Amino acid sequence: MKRILIDTDPGVDDALALIYAFKSPDIKVEAITTVSGNVNLETVTRNLLKILNILDLTAFPIIAKGEAQPLVKPPVDAEDVHGKDGLGNISELLNSTGTLKYDTADCQFTDQSADDLILEMVDSYPDELIIVALGPLTNISKAIQKDLSRFRKVHSLYLMGGVFTEYGNITTNAEFNVFVDPHAAHEVFNSGVPIHIAPLDVTHQVKLTGDRLQTEVFGREDVISHFLTDSTKAVMEFYRENVGFYGFHIHDALPIGMLNHPELFRSVDAHVQVETEGELTSGMTVADLRKQNVIDPNAKVYVGVDADSFLDLFFKTILT
């Protein structure tokens, strides 16, 4: 059983990743921390509670609110992609009775800061806890700043972020999560902990099309199937207008897949650096991915995935 802490900024693809993690039989989500990213901190935290509510859990993980803004830069959001509420505007949906279709779970938050919770969980499960970071790395960097020696007891860090051989999705050179807080990403990559990174190079290989989703949920009336249909409409429309296909890349689900089915993925060791100051290149992740030229590697960069098998196993897991 893999014990994980998820740091997240829900986000439609974060929502799918969270469902995937909770439905995975070999994963135990011990704690969740929220961070400003796709939308502001209050909204992403409320989104987390909506996601937890549809999962019908018998017990909740420990939850802490994290950082409301990046270390240095002003906040940047992705409302244009994920909708104003970050979950495809499902907050506007009502049942036939006039009540909210997607309400929030009634669960408690710890009074701790996110960075304190991260360090406490590492202390509780030394050399065992895996941190899965699905948003900007602000909370993680705060924990590193507070106590690097304690943080280094983490087993490993799996994150979605960065881009190396393709164009970015927020600027020409940068992927959203790293661009939002490049200074935090710089600290994380220099922390000395084992890092597994799913950049756009690999997440762009997995396309969840509208046709595939409808095939999977056709005839189903369970709440997760309804949520998948409702929450993805806005982002699929965005992709149709701006990317060229009706569907979207389920970026944040890939780190969970890397834990569940590592045999589906191909990675290379690399030394990853982050540009924090460039006027045109802020948030750019830089690495030489040629195996023969690895010098002082600090991360495994995932560069390939069996996309069809990944999607098959993803749906088999979340719709069981």
Write up what this structure looks like.
With 320 residues, the chain is α/β, with parallel strands linked by helices. It has helices at residues 12-23, 41-54, 79-82, 114-124, 138-146, 148-151, 176-180, 182-189, 200-203, 210-217, 223-242, 253-260, 307-318; strands at residues 2-8, 27-34, 62-65, 130-133, 156-160, 195-198, 207-209, 247-249, 265-270, 273-274, 285-286, 299-305. The two termini are 19 Å apart. The protein has an 8-stranded mixed β-sheet, sandwiched between helices. Strands 7-8 form a two-stranded antiparallel sheet. It has 13 helices and 12 strands. β1 (2-8), α1 (12-23) and β2 form a beta-alpha-beta unit.
Number of helices: 13
Number of strands: 12
Low-confidence stretches: none
What order do the strands of the largest sheet run in, or round the barrel if closed?
Answer: 3-2-1-4-5-6-12-9
Mean pLDDT: 96
What proportion of the residues form beta strands (DSSP E)?
A: 15-25%
Note the gap between the termini: 19 Å
Gyration radius, in Å: 18 Å
Question: What does the main sheet amount to?
Answer: 8 strands, mixed
Can you give the helix content as a percent range?
A: 25-40%
Shape: globular
Provide the succession of SSEs: EHEHEHHEHHEHHEHEHHEHEEEEH
Question: Which class of secondary structure composition applies to the elements?
Answer: alpha/beta
Keywords:
320 residues, eight-stranded mixed β-sheet, 13 helices, 12 strands, alpha/beta, two-stranded antiparallel ribbon
Write the layout of secondary structure elements.
Layout: E1 2-8, H1 12-23, E2 27-34, H2 41-54, E3 62-65, H3 79-82, H4 114-124, E4 130-133, H5 138-146, H6 148-151, E5 156-160, H7 176-180, H8 182-189, E6 195-198, H9 200-203, E7 207-209, H10 210-217, H11 223-242, E8 247-249, H12 253-260, E9 265-270, E10 273-274, E11 285-286, E12 299-305, H13 307-318
Parallel strand pairs: 1-2, 1-4, 2-3, 4-5, 5-6, 6-12
Antiparallel strand pairs: 7-8, 9-12, 10-11
Helix pairs in contact: 1-12, 4-5, 5-8, 10-11
